Amino acid sequence: NCLLCSQPDQFLTAFRQLASDDELLARLSRNARSSFERYYASRVVSRKMIELALEVAGARKWVLSDAKDTH
Questions:
Q1: Is 19 helix (H, G, I), strand (E, B) or coil?
Q2: pTM of the prediction?
């Protein structure tokens, strides 16, 4: 998905390699797109947000109903 570098000279070397290697560029592009679609596309993120909201709402409902039972 990406080229990882910890030093500026490594970044420059990796960037030059990417600029001169069409197959590497194509492969990284495909893999990055695939990762985006799998983890960050709006349909994926919105589904996770809805699931989390429902989970929180269910927990809140349980807490509120439990509080009513104790009074």
A1: helix
A2: 0.60
pLDDT in tens, 7-46: 999 999 999 999 999 999 999 999 999 999 999 999 999 9
Interatomic CA distance for residues 24 and 34, integer angstroms: 15
Instruction: Tell me the DSSP string of 28-62.
Output: HHHHHHHHHHHHTSHHHHHHHHHHHHHHHHHHHHH
Find, among 46, 45, 26, the residue nearest to 36 by Cα.
45
Name the residue with tokens 């109903």: 65
Residue 24's contacts (CB-CB under 8 Å, 6 or more residues apart) are: 17, 18
Report the C-alpha gap between 28 and 3 in whole angstroms.
9
Residues 18 and 24 sit within 8 Å (Cβ to Cβ): yes
